[in-house]
Structures are given as C-alpha cells and as structure tokens.
Design a protein that fits this description.
With 147 residues, the chain is an alpha/beta fold. The protein contains 2 helices and 4 strands, in the order βαβαββ. The protein has helices spanning 32-43, 58-70, and strands at residues 6-10, 47-51, 77-79, 86-90. It has a 4-stranded parallel beta sheet. Helix 2 links the parallel strand 2 (47-51) and strand 3 (77-79). The longest helix is centred in the middle third of the chain and has 13 residues, at 58-70. The model is unreliable at 136-147 (pLDDT under 50).
C-alpha cells in the first residue's frame, strides 16, 4: 500500500461491539479480531482511520479518541468521510460491488432485498450524464435511510 493510502474502519459493529438500542454516545467493548487486525496494520505502518458519522461532533470525537487511546490505538485517526486515498473500508453495513458493474461481490450479502435479483443485466450501460457548469445534475428523486 502506498504511504498515501489508508484503511477505513467503522466503529459501531466493526471495531467496537454494538447492540441495537444502545445509546448513541455509547462505545462498546472492542471486537477482538478487528482490534488485532488494526494493530497488525499499524505495525506494518499502514494508516488506519476510524470512519464514523460521530466525527462531525467534537464531543464524540473526544469520546472516540479516549476509547481508541484506551485500546492502545493512539495512531488511529478519526474522520467522517473517505477521500481518494482510501484503499479499503471495513464496515458491518457495507455491501461490496464489482467496480463499474453494480454487481455484488457476494450476492445475497445485502440486508435489504435486491430489487434487481434474478434480472438480466442491461445489455449496455446508460451513457454518462455530463453536468455542465450552468446545468447541475439533479439528485435522485427517491431516497431512503435505514433509520
């Protein structure tokens, strides 16, 4: 991995145990296998960042920093976003797709039923939409969250 690259690790349910119904400010006990993996990456001088929506709140950043320090992970950074240098994301909610295809690497791995399951893929990908400076691309009209 290049020096510029980094590995992103989700906090709740990936690096720290998470059980439904926990208060939003609670950080669970470390997940042993993930903790060992992060330590191994750090030993290899790989940059690791905790990627969590909590990082948009300074109070939560302090709690996460204290939790990480308590696990001996002082070198782990905290962020709420990925960037072009992100090489991998480890997350309990992510579904990996084959680049540029929309196909799941592990079909059936989504928690949400795939509305395209069993359908033939389109014969040709739609042409990309160019966004001219005077004509922004509209957001998709249907959005939803896992609330």
């Amino acid at each position: 991995m290049s020096r510029r690259g980094w590995i992103g690790v989700d906090l709740n349910g990936t690096l720290a145990r998470y059980d439904e119904g926990q208060p939003s400010n609670h950080i669970g006990v470390p997940v042993p296998k993930m903790l060992a993996r992060v330590r191994a990456w750090l030993d290899q001088t790989i940059t690791v960042k905790v990627v969590t929506v909590r990082a948009n709140d300074p109070v939560q950043i302090l709690k996460i920093r204290q939790w990480l320090d308590g696990q001996g992970l002082q070198e782990v950074e905290i962020t709420d976003r990925k960037d072009p240098d992100c090489r991998e994301m480890w997350d309990d909610r992510a579904v990996q797709v084959v680049p540029n295809t929309g196909e799941m690497v592990s079909p059936g791995s989504s928690r949400i039923p795939d509305p395209l399951a069993g359908q033939e893929p389109p014969r040709r990908a739609p042409a990309p939409v160019d966004a001219a400076p005077d004509r922004p691309v509209a957001a998709h009209p249907r959005t939803w969250s896992m609330g």
